[in-house]
Design a protein that fits this description.
elongated, single chain, mainly beta, N-terminal domain of TfIIb, three-stranded antiparallel β-sheet
Length: 67
């Protein structure tokens, strides 16, 4: 019997969380890259992400992708 390659059978998610730095105050915040609502900075209230139907438009500086 042949061995099954599970990595091809089980799909990997295309979405991820991003560590985003606010352009206004420099605060770092975790944002979902497929956000369905407008995401604002918790410190100054500046907009960090705007929903665009699929992936959100990230307005802050993306520092890293989190898994």
């Amino acid at each position: 019997m042949s061995e099954v390659d599970w990595s091809k059978l089980i799909p990997k998610p295309r979405s991820k969380f991003l560590l985003v730095q606010c352009n206004e105050c420099g605060h770092r915040q975790v944002v979902f890259d497929h956000a369905k609502i407008e995401v604002k900075c918790l410190v100054c209230g500046a907009t960090l992400a705007i929903p665009k139907g699929g992936k959100a438009k990230i307005l802050g500086r993306v520092l890293e992708g989190l898994t």
